[in-house]
């Protein structure tokens, strides 16, 4: 049942909750709602990583969808990844608002990107409905990053709206309804520090790299307020 005037959003969770996030935040769902949610909204959770998807006849009930990041490859052939790709194509055809990733994705040529990164906004880009709540988009944003893949090529019809010294595609928009973000504006510093611990323990990254990433977190703060208005 939908309450008249209530905005309704769905989080399509493509990652499983870590023990740390479950203990401190009650799960990634709460992390996303804290970052992007607002009053007069209802948020629903679909754990797509476990094969839990909204039914096709439910899609029209939602004003927008958020697709989380994932430790799994976006270009993988797992059944849930293929189903998620089909769902995103369907949402695009329905002109639903989607905050997600897309395009041609692969391993970053320059390796891991972990820490706080300054993302530069393209001048005079075409605004989309996601950004209507912003009176003025800042020239740059500090966003937490934690990924080994990057966007090699944006989807057809997409416009790059942010880049960095690390990669040429940090944010892109397609028309008025799709916004893709390479980084993790929903992350807090403590969540990233825990991820660094886990990556270090599993030998996915080296100690010196981890220490450098932690140092960057100590000297600056991520920009979080602007996402509350998107």
TrEMBL record:
It holds the Pfam family GATase. PANTHER family: GAMMA-GLUTAMYL PEPTIDASE 2-RELATED (PTHR42695:SF9), GLUTAMINE AMIDOTRANSFERASE YLR126C-RELATED (PTHR42695). It comes from Escallonia rubra. One of its GO terms (cellular component) is cytosol. InterPro entries: ChyE-like, Class_I_gatase-like, GATASE. Residues 93-189 form the Glutamine amidotransferase domain. PROSITE patterns: GATASE_TYPE_1 (PS51273). Pathway: Secondary metabolite biosynthesis. Belongs to the peptidase C26 family. This is Glutamine amidotransferase domain-containing protein.
């Amino acid at each position: 049942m939908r309450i008249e005037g209530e905005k309704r959003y769905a989080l399509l969770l493509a990652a499983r909750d870590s023990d740390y996030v479950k203990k401190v935040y009650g799960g990634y769902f709460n992390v996303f709602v804290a970052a992007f949610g607002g009053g007069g909204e209802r948020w629903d959770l679909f754990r797509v990583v476990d094969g839990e998807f909204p039914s096709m006849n439910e899609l029209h009930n939602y004003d927008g969808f958020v697709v989380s990041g994932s430790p799994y490859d976006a270009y993988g052939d797992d059944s849930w990844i293929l189903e998620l790709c089909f769902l995103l194509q369907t949402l695009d055809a329905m002109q639903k608002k989607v905050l997600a990733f897309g395009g041609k994705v692969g391993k970053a040529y320059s390796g891991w990107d972990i820490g706080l990164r300054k993302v530069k906004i393209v001048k005079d880009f075409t605004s989309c409905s996601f950004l209507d709540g912003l009176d003025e988009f800042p020239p740059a944003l500090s966003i937490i990053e934690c990924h080994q893949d990057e966007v090699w090529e944006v989807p057809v019809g997409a416009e790059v709206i942010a880049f960095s010294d690390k990669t040429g595609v940090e944010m892109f928009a397609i028309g008025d309804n799709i916004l893709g973000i390479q980084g993790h504006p929903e992350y807090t510093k403590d969540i990233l520090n825990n991820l660094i611990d886990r990556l270090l323990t599993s030998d996915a990254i080296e100690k010196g790299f981890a220490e450098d990433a932690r140092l960057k977190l100590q000297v600056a703060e991520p920009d979080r307020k602007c996402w509350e208005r998107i």
